[in-house]
Amino acid sequence: EVQLLESGGGLVQPGGSLRLSCAASGFTFKAYAMSWVRQAPGKGLEWVSALNDGGYNTYYADSVKGRFTISRDNSKSTLFLQMNSLTPEDTAVYYCAKDGRGWYEGPFDLWGQGTLVTVSS
Amino acid sequence: EVVLTQSPGTLSLSPGERGTLSCRASQRIGGDYLAWYQLKRGQAPRLLIYSAVYRATGIPARFSGTGSGTDFTLTISRLEPEDVAVYYCQQYGSTSIFGQGTKVEIK
Question: Under an 8 A CB cutoff, do B50 and A107 touch?
Answer without folding.
Answer: yes
